[in-house]
Amino acid sequence: MNNIILVGYMGSGKTTVGRLLAQLLDYSFADTDEMIEEREQLTISKIFSEKGEEAFRDMETGLLEELAVSGQERLVIATGGGMAVREQNRRLLRELGSVVYLKASPETVYDRIKGDTGRPLLQCDNPLSRIKEMIAQREQFYEEASHTVISVDIMKKDEIAQMIREAFVI
Ligand code: S3P
Which residue out of 9, 17, 32, 33 has the highest number of ligand 1 atoms within 8 Å of its CB and is therefore the one to mutate? Predict the structure, then answer.
């Protein structure tokens, strides 16, 4: 399908880059976290605390299934950082379109998200070591899910969007 999907760990810039890219391509923009929050009328933190992570993961899979059957195209879709972990999701992501992995180092992520309370999985005593652990576990899934990898550490968000646009002009 003719869509571009951004995957990668928290703080890798999926939402900001996705919005910029959608403007450049004149595509619509969708963010799976925002869609879930809107449907549930709850923040991600509340969904985790009140319904649990597994319920959130099911919502993510359900949303990808809906997007795939909707046939909607010309979308840039920013996904939550855990979206690529389920095998079923990786398959759905690739069905939806061209998948780009925004690859950020743990240090870049930590710099961007420190002090942010909206990410329930990083509310812990040592977020940097948590980030390192999680990225090490997930790296293979982001790679398997994606068609293209972009290292984002030293790039500006508008440069990343431009680079993706150039790679995917259809
Ligand atoms: C998560 C990433 C978050 C959000 C939730 C879980 C994860 O999205 O879906 O907090 O498991 O990595 P962002 O990557 O947009 O922060």
Answer: 33
